[in-house]
């Protein structure tokens, strides 16, 4: 041991000295030693090496705790009754002790969190829970918890579920404890952080903890104190968002209990803005949970109660008063103040209006229970205050008319806009004209006032709303047209105002989109002159107009006419081109300095290019529609990284089956190949003009180019414009791709890109110039946006190929070199005492790739590494440790690096679609060098983000990554997952980013070593996550991501030939693992698995933009059905024995939904299991309590999807099978009386029997259940013998084939023959049908023959001796037939048997039928069908 450590050890032992003066001396020495550099270095190294035989920070902390305990005991045993000065001295002593602990923790964790989380937590919890320690210790320990533990990501991830729950309980108890010496704001902040941690790191908080929040809110009402309440409510919101998916009913009920109290607090207390914000968020959340996606009734998925309805009315009244109060403050406050109200309040008000506005109620008297005092609240006899409120659109119209102040008008304009935008159906037809009149009257007033943009936005939404209404009367349309013409005129005149230009163009576009008026020629002048400049709103409006109206050939333009050539008039189309490009005559080009906005502003991708190309085409409207019809590719859609609550709303609607995405059937189709529509021809003079304008623009940039001063962004925008125009030309079939490559436009684009590349190259040595970093980030974003790696044919894809050809090898290599430089230049996460490698630690040994056992991947020992995010400091979030993936960890250079990385990935992926100037393989090799073990440090946030970008972007779908490169890409995966195994946010993100890699694994030679290596690496990680999930160590969000990975694995390898997880030495095929998630404890996970269960029945091959469906083999489908059905039932059975517990109401509903979803998906995707699935539904209604109305809702949609006009028809087509299986269940509970006939749309058993007795009775007769036949007859008041006579043909079909066919060695047939004989003997009995049976046979012979033919089913597995031509049309995957069914040879034998039994000498069944007096149409049908046999 070093001398420095020896001194520290002696000092630590002296801290336990019995004499206080000695201990006091050692404290000063202790402080000096723990900040001594040499001592710190030794302690850091020993702590990192985990060698307990040496003195480390944990050992020193234990000495310190003993010192604190000794000092505290001395203070506790001292005389209690002493002077004030002595008390002050003792208090000061406690503060010194507490400060020493804080100081020590700061010193130990300054460079990295080296103290054990468990040691720290135990000390803090013991101190806080010991009431004798007083407020000083408690407050300091709470500060340590908040700032030094909960803000450190490493500790955040090491806290166990039990510790989170204990922290939650302890601190909530402190918050509710009415003690004067407790800092309740600090306690509330800790509760906020703990709730966030518990909800993100565990699934631990359950509904019983809701009571804490309920008590806290009641406490705030009683005390009239809101200290820390905003933190408590913020924690409550986090808790509810996490809990809602599993406990919707409980969350709704709690909202019904708590919201009246919050209404009281809002009205009776003086709340600050931050507290109001949180309360509004809580109200909004309750709206979402009660009314997902705006559902208004229970039939549509809403959760309703009379109490909730009352809350909505009171909340509506409160918000009206609040908005009025905000307006009053604005009017009478000094200085400038914005008239607009915050969007969250507006959205809440709009949601409430949508729920409570209806055509029948204009006013309502409500009880304001929330205004009563606490004493009155407890006295149930005290009357509630009553108030009359006005409802409906009259309220909105009144508020828009009664005041001229912007502060009164603007909030209601915001509400109206939001309401119509979010819920267009909420605006009744009869309110359109009055509302439009009011808005029209507001429009001319105060043209430049604050209200004008809000009026325009509101009118835009009204226009869009009207465009969606198809049931307007003619007279109403006429009235509306008059208003729209006036509004159009006013809007048209206001275009020149730059402040409201966007709103004006938005309104014009909405009017055009809804075809509300006929566009006049004056409109086109906007895009030809100086009234306005090209802008994003103007271009969007022009695009709409061109697609809907088409561009006239000419329009008189006055001044603009002078710029046209003398020898011809300038067409309108050419004027629009010039306007878009700010083109000037050749004489003025030399003096031209201004660039068109398209070169320095952001426009929708390819919008300008599509307009320019459409203008050159003769049929401009058709060309624009053709170019616009391709939906935006994923590359250009905004990706929402964080899941929003709208996903939970969709889950609610799936649970109530008001949203059934699984019914979207992907039809089998060939891969789409784009063929340009024949018939597009261009005006050659316009095309030449456009080319000339674009060439002139590029010449201007090239002539003014200087490497030092050039704006690379402008150069790239121009080159993108040129290739975008060429791409659109090619897509409409005007120019061939090879011709485009040789065009002058493409050559100019190459020159521009070369100049831009030179500017980028200059950056290599200037990576710390912030202005250049920001500029280059814009360039990278712009370049990435020009690329398209999606598989669907589109103008984007063609333009992307052109853009790729512009990229030189030097440019790409320069960017790759800059990436490598930026990746290596980031600072180390620790300035001193960097964490040692953990490879020598036997307890922390991470898995080697060659070891395919997933159990070595994630060990239970504490995570040894320390990430950037694990370092304590002020940069950490005040409410929980910051996610390692948060952008706050990254510098501007880091963000540039990630942008460059993504650009290179997309380039190399997309480059495989055609010829390029660079070697994509070389660039990929450089990118993969970044994840080499010598470069990649998972502890660094940037490196983690870098690896995730590579995982997501490098593997392509259409042109996958070579397998040897996939192997290299996956090499760091196990180490990254092991390092962050406890960080649930990172684990979720990693799994989500693995999906593209999974899709790559089905490419190439399955037996190649590289392929097996890549598959092994990936399956090892997924297997480890599955093992952790089974042990309860993964949160639901991680399990959701895991299900998505498994789902993709099933799509990639539907037969599970190689998709096999090895866990604990056992192999588990993925198609056996996947059904386990149907019984997952979290509803969102199990529902995702249920709606994805079709992957177990279908081979889903993605080919470009199409999906090819192929049924899996029969055996696999039958096994899948059994596994999925049993697992879904297992989830049901887990809660069935606890059903009496009211808290399980949510879980029971959820489990039922999962079971119903599972069966419904199978029903839709597997014809071979269709009947089994349908019977499982019927059985589950009886045995598992599935709600018949939900089952009917599903079956109605399914039958509609299958092409049935009515549910009854669909069910009738399977009724024989359902009844047979129902009667085969040998117990008294499954009699026909208990059959779920409601699924056939029958309201009572009598109707069921009366309509279906011809199906039911034959099944009962063959089982000799004549008592039930008599029961049916009694129910429908018919003679039971006459019912037998009516059903005779179908009864005989269940008997005759067994008489006719004598299969050798077929014991089953022999037994059925014996049963048939007994039944027939019973029918011949005089008490049943007796002698009447012969007459019935002869008179019904044609029907009997037809019924026999209807039982024909030729199995594909018929033996060679019994094979017929019909076998060629049969297969294993044919849907199961209705019973009874027989092969053709049995039916032939039956016909022969009938012929032999006939009394006449006629030899064939045809002759018998032709002589039969009952021969009719049936006989004709049989005559045609029999030769087929």
Features:
1429 residues; disordered C terminus; mainly alpha; single chain; two-stranded antiparallel sheet; globular
Describe this structure in words.
Helix content is 59%, strand content 2%. Helix 11 (210-223) runs parallel beside helix 13. With 1429 residues, it is mainly alpha-helical. The strands form three sheets. Strands 1-2 form a two-stranded antiparallel ribbon. It has a two-stranded antiparallel sheet with strand order 3-4.
Average predicted local confidence, pLDDT: 84
Q: How large, in whole angstroms, is the Cα Rg? A: 39 Å
Q: Whole-Å distance between the termini?
A: 98 Å
Beta strand count? 6
Described by the principal axes of the CA atoms, the overall outline is globular
The number of helical segments is 63
Largest sheet properties:
2 strands, antiparallel
| Major sheet: arrangement of strands | 1-2
Range of helix content: 55-70%
Beta content comes to: under 5%
The low-confidence runs, each spanning 5 or more residues with pLDDT under 50, are 374-381, 558-568, 666-677, 827-855, 860-864, 872-877, 1415-1429
SS-based structural class?
A: mainly alpha
Q: What's the topology here?
A:
Blueprint: H1 3-14, H2 20-33, H3 37-49, H4 57-77, H5 84-108, H6 117-129, H7 134-149, H8 153-158, H9 161-176, H10 184-201, H11 210-223, H12 229-244, H13 248-268, H14 273-290, H15 306-332, H16 343-356, E1 363-368, H17 374-378, E2 385-390, H18 393-401, H19 406-422, H20 432-442, H21 452-468, H22 474-493, H23 501-513, H24 521-524, H25 536-548, H26 572-581, H27 607-616, H28 620-628, H29 646-655, H30 684-703, H31 712-731, H32 737-741, H33 744-761, H34 770-785, H35 795-806, H36 809-825, H37 892-910, H38 920-929, H39 941-953, H40 963-970, H41 973-979, H42 984-1000, H43 1009-1030, H44 1036-1052, E3 1060-1063, E4 1066-1069, H45 1070-1073, H46 1083-1091, E5 1098-1103, E6 1106-1111, H47 1114-1136, H48 1145-1165, H49 1170-1183, H50 1188-1201, H51 1207-1212, H52 1215-1224, H53 1245-1262, H54 1266-1275, H55 1280-1286, H56 1288-1293, H57 1296-1300, H58 1307-1324, H59 1332-1339, H60 1341-1350, H61 1384-1397, H62 1405-1411, H63 1417-1425
Helix pairs in contact: 1-2, 4-5, 5-7, 6-7, 7-10, 9-10, 9-11, 10-12, 11-12, 11-13, 12-14, 13-14, 13-15, 14-16, 15-16, 15-19, 16-19, 18-19, 19-21, 20-21, 20-22, 21-23, 22-23, 23-25, 25-27, 25-28, 26-27, 26-30, 27-28, 27-30, 27-31, 30-31, 30-33, 31-33, 31-34, 31-35, 33-36, 34-37, 36-37, 37-38, ...
């Amino acid at each position: 041991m070093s001398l420095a450590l020896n001194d520290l050890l002696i000092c630590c032992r002296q801290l336990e000295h019995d004499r206080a003066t000695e201990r006091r001396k050692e404290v000063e020495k202790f402080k000096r030693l723990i900040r001594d550099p040499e001592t710190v270095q030794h302690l850091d190294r020993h702590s990192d090496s985990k060698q307990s035989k040496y003195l480390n920070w944990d050992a020193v902390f234990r000495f310190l705790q003993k010192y604190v305990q000794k000092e505290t005991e001395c203070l506790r045993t001292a005389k209690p009754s002493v002077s004030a000065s002595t008390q002050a001295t003792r208090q000061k002593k406690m503060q010194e002790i507490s400060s020493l602990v804080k100081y020590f923790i700061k010193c130990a964790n300054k460079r990295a969190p080296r103290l054990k989380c468990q040691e720290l937590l135990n000390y803090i919890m013991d101190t806080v829970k010991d009431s004798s320690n007083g407020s000083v210790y408690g407050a300091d320990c709470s500060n340590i918890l908040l700032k030094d533990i909960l803000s450190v990501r490493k500790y955040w991830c090491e806290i166990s579920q039990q510790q989170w729950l204990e922290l939650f309980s302890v601190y909530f108890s402190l918050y509710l404890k009415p003690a004067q010496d407790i800092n309740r704001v600090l306690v509330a902040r800790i509760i906020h952080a703990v709730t966030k941690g518990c909800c993100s790191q565990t699934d631990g908080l359950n509904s019983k903890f809701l009571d804490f929040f309920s008590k806290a809110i009641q406490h705030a009402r009683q005390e009239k104190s809101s200290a820390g309440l905003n933190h408590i409510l913020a924690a409550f919101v986090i808790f509810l968002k996490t809990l809602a998916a599993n406990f919707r009913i409980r969350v709704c009920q709690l909202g019904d209990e708590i919201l009246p109290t919050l209404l009281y607090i809002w009205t009776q207390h003086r709340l600050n803005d931050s507290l109001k914000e949180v309360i509004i968020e809580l109200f909004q959340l309750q709206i979402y949970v009660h009314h997902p996606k705006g559902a208004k009734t229970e039939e549509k998925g809403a959760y309703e109660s009379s109490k909730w309805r009352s809350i909505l009315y009171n909340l509506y009244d409160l918000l009206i008063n609040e908005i009025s109060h905000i307006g009053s403050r604005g009017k009478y406050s000094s200085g400038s103040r914005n008239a607009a109200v915050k969007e969250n309040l507006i959205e809440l008000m709009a949601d409430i209006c949508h729920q409570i506005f209806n055509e029948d109620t204009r006013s309502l008297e409500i009880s304001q229970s929330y205004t009563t005092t606490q004493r009155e609240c407890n006295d149930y006899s005290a009357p509630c205050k009553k108030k009359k409120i006005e409802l409906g659109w009259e309220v909105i119209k009144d508020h828009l008319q009664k005041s001229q102040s912007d502060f009164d008008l603007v909030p209601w304009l915001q509400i109206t806009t939001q309401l119509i935008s979010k819920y267009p159906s909420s605006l009744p037809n009869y309110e359109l004209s009055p509302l439009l009149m009011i808005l029209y009257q507001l429009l001319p007033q105060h043209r430049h006032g604050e209200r004008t943009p809000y009026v325009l936005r509101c009118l835009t939404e009204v226009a869009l709303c009207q465009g969606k209404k198809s049931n307007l009367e003619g007279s109403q349309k006429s009235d509306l047209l008059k208003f729209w013409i006036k509004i159009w005129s006013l809007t048209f005149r206001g275009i020149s105002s730059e402040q409201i230009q966007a709103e004006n163009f938005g309104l014009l576009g909405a009017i055009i989109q809804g075809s509300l008026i006929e566009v006049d020629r004056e409109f086109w002048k906007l895009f030809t002159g100086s009234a306005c400049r090209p802008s994003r709103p103007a271009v969007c409006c022009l695009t709409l107009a061109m697609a809907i109206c088409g561009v006239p050939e000419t329009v008189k333009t006055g001044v603009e006419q002078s710029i046209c050539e003398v020898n011809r008039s300038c067409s309108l189309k050419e004027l629009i081109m010039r306007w878009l490009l700010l083109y000037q005559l050749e004489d003025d080009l030399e003096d031209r300095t201004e660039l068109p906005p398209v070169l320095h502003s952001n426009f929708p991708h390819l919008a300008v290019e599509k307009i320019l190309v459409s203008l050159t085409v003769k049929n401009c409207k058709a060309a624009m529609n053709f170019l616009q019809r391709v939906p935006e590719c994923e590359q250009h859609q905004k990706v929402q990284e964080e899941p929003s609550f709208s996903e939970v709303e969709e889950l609610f609607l799936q649970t109530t089956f008001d949203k059934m995405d699984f019914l979207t059937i992907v039809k089998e189709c060939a891969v789409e190949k784009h063929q340009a529509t024949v018939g597009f021809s261009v005006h050659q003079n316009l095309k030449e003009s456009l080319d000339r304008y674009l060439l002139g623009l590029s010449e201007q940039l090239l002539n003014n180019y200087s490497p030092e001063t050039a704006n690379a962004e402008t150069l790239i925008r121009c080159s993108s414009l040129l290739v975008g125009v060429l791409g659109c030309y090619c897509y409409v079939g005007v120019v061939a791709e090879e011709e485009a490559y040789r065009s002058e436009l493409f050559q100019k684009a190459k020159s521009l890109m070369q100049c831009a590349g030179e500017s980028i190259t200059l950056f290599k040595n200037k990576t710390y110039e912030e202005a250049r970093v920001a500029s280059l980030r814009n360039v990278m974003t712009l370049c990435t946006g020009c690329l398209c790696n999606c598989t669907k044919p589109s103008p984007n894809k063609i333009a992307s190929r052109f853009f790729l050809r512009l990229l030189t090898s030097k440019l790409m290599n320069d960017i790759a070199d800059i990436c490598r430089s930026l990746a290596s230049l980031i600072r180390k996460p620790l300035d001193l005492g960097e964490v040692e490698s953990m490879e020598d630690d036997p307890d922390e040994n991470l898995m080697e790739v060659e070891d395919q056992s997933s159990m070595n991947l994630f060990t239970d020992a504490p995570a040894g590494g320390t990430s950037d995010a694990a370092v304590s400091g002020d940069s950490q979030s005040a409410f929980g440790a910051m996610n390692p993936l948060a952008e706050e960890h990254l510098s501007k250079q880091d963000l540039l690096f990630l942008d460059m990385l993504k650009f290179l990935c997309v380039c190399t992926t997309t480059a495989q679609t055609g010829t390029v100037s660079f070697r994509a393989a070389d660039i990929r090799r450089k990118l993969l060098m970044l994840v080499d073990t010598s470069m990649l440090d998972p502890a660094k946030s940037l490196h983690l983000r870098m690896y995730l970008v590579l995982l997501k972007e490098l593997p392509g779908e259409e042109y996958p990554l070579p397998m040897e490169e996939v192997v290299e890409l996956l090499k760091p995966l196990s180490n990254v997952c092991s390092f962050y195994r406890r960080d649930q946010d990172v684990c979720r993100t990693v799994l989500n980013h693995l999906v593209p890699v999974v899709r790559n694994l089905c490419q190439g030679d399955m037996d190649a070593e590289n392929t097996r290596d890549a598959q092994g690496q990936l399956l090892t990680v997924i297997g480890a996550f599955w093992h952790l999930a089974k042990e309860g160590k993964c949160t639901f969000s991680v399990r959701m991501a895991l299900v998505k990975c498994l789902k993709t694995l099933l799509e990639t390898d539907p037969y599970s030939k190689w998709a096999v997880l090895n866990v604990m030495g056992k192999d588990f095929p993925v198609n056996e693992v996947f059904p386990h998630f149907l019984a997952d404890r979290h509803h969102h996970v199990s529902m995702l698995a249920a709606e994805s269960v079709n992957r177990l029945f279908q081979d889903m091959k993605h080919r470009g933009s199409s999906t090819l469906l192929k049924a899996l083999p029969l055996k696999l489908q039958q096994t899948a059905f059994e596994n999925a059905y049993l697992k879904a039932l297992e989830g049901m059975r887990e809660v069935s024995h606890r059903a009496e517990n009211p808290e399980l109401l949510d879980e029971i509903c959820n489990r039922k939904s999962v079971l119903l979803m599972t069966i419904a998906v199978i029903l839709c995707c597997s014809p071979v299991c269709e009947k089994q699935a349908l019977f499982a539904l019927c059985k589950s209604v009886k045995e598992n309590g599935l709600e018949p109305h939900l089952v009917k809702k599903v079956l109605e949609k399914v039958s509609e999807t299958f092409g049935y006009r009515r549910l009854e028809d669909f069910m009738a087509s399977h009724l024989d099978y359902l009844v047979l299986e129902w009667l085969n269940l040998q117990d008294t509970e499954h009699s026909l009386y208990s059959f779920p006939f409601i699924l056939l749309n029958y309201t009572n058993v009598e109707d069921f029997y009366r309509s279906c007795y011809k199906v039911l009775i034959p099944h009962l007769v063959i089982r000799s259940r004549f008592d039930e036949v008599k029961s049916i007859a009694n129910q429908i008041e018919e003679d039971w013998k006459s019912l037998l006579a009516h059903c005779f043909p179908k009864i005989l079909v269940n008997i005759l084939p067994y008489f006719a066919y004598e299969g050798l060695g077929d014991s089953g047939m022999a037994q059925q023959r014996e049963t048939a004989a007994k039944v027939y003997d019973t029918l011949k009995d005089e008490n049943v049908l007796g002698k009447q049976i012969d007459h019935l046979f002869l008179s019904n012979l044609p029907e009997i023959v037809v019924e026999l033919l209807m039982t024909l089913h030729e199995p594909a597995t018929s033996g060679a001796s019994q094979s017929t031509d019909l076998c060629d049309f049969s297969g294993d995957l044919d849907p199961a037939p209705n019973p009874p069914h027989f092969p053709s040879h049995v039916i032939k034998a039956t016909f022969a048997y009938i012929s032999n039994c006939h009394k006449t000498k006629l030899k064939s069944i045809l002759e018998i039928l032709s002589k039969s007096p009952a021969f009719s149409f049936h006989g004709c049908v049989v005559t045609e069908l029999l030769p087929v046999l």
